[in-house]
Amino acid sequence: MSTAVLRFENVSKQFPGVKALDGVSFEAHAGRVHGLLGENGAGKSTLLKMLGGQYRPDGGRLLLNGRPCDFHSAGDAIAAGIAVIHQELQYVAELSVAENVLLGRLPTRFGLVDHAEAQRRVAAQLAAIGIELDPAARLGELSIAQRQMVEICKAVAQDAQVIAFDEPTSSLSHRESEILFRLVHALRAEGRTLIYISHRLEELYALCDSCTIFRDGRKVASHAVMAEVRRERLISDMVGRELSDIYDYRPRPAGQRRLQVRELRSQALPHGLSFEVRGGEVLGFFGLVGAGRSELMRLLYGADRRRGGQVLLDGVPVSAAGPAAAIAAGIVLCPEDRKEQGLLTQASVAENINISCRRHGLLAGLFLRHRREAALADDFIQRLRIKTPHRRQAVSLLSGGNQQKVILARWLAEPGLKVLILDEPTRGIDVGAKNEIYRLIHEVAARGCCVIVVSSELPEVLGIADRLIVMRDGRISGELPRAQASETAALALALPDPACSDFCD
Predict the structure, then answer these.
(1) d(Cα 477, Cα 495) in Å, to the nearest integer?
(2) Model's pTM, two decimal places?
(3) Which domains does the chain have, with CATH numbers?
(4) How large is the average pLDDT for residues 462-481?
């Protein structure tokens, strides 16, 4: 066994109403990848923020190479040789890729930033790790996946000896994930100490040498050899119960045709797209990053401008005026990017739940009914099992899974809900919370609503959908009923034939 470079000893952290970490101890070794597993809210991200200098422990201590560390800021952690890539990306949207990677270490010439030199350095760094990005590009104009790769490049550029990844592939395509995996293997071969958090168990088995499992802020178990631990054991340790089938699929009789999309087009989707959804049906959409799935959902919701086509709900045309018109008709969207597009992050849980449906309960059409809103929020917190100390808690302090439940509660509170669109509903969410969200999806469908689920995780859409539509290059490349849907069939539609064979290998 290699040297224990990083060690947590009886570390605790308390927040108002929540004990995020309770006497946690574990260690990570040089030249090895140590996985951290657990449900959202189990304490993993809190521990990484402590490692990165954002939080200080209330009890216990952190040791690096046998020496106690007391970080007061992220700068202290970086100076000690620690880099943390958080799930919520840390970047300056108005700066270039090069400026973000070298932030705090930008080269200067005659007292001014030498942008040419910065771009040259970062271009070499990007090329070395196999990332194709323009170092002069403004970060705010890049996709979520590209921003994630910039964060990874930043950590490598700092030459950190301890690198922690918090859900690094949650926004990456398959090929981008392959680049990350190659990088992780290379960093391990160099003798660096790596911490890896992911809810995708297949990733953890592929990358991690050892692991520690958390539940409710406590360490449940540690395993020196992850490959020897059965998947069922890991899931049971994480959620505290057996989960034989997380998708909980429930066959339903086919309802009447409710949603019709006819030749829908936009600037991003110039080819007319058409499909239908029946009441009570869960329709899955699959495709690789860039296939146009999210653009189609935003167009259907009215967030992007139509350039042609028609949407009909129960035979009645839906106005293209914008999201307000879609919501009024009964079409709602849980977006891919919860933080940027789905939540009022500084508002409370109750405000986020009530923000849309409150228009139905205004007193005299003008005044908020606070007791009604409080009761509604408390009802959904209980029904959806949202883990929050109280309804007044800022939604930004909740875990990703609980934030997703808040958005779901907002739309389930809509009395006229007819079409629920979920874009990557379980991205960055633990297996237990996934199971609860799948249960909610089936319950909504059982009420006769149309449910559309977009996911990059093929097993997910195959597991929950009654029917699957596959997109490629902004077009619908095929449709598969549940009985014929398989990974091979879906990938054959998602990729050109030569790429598909490479992918499957």
Answers:
(1) 9
(2) 0.64
(3) 4-239 (3.40.50.300), 257-504 (3.40.50.300)
(4) 94
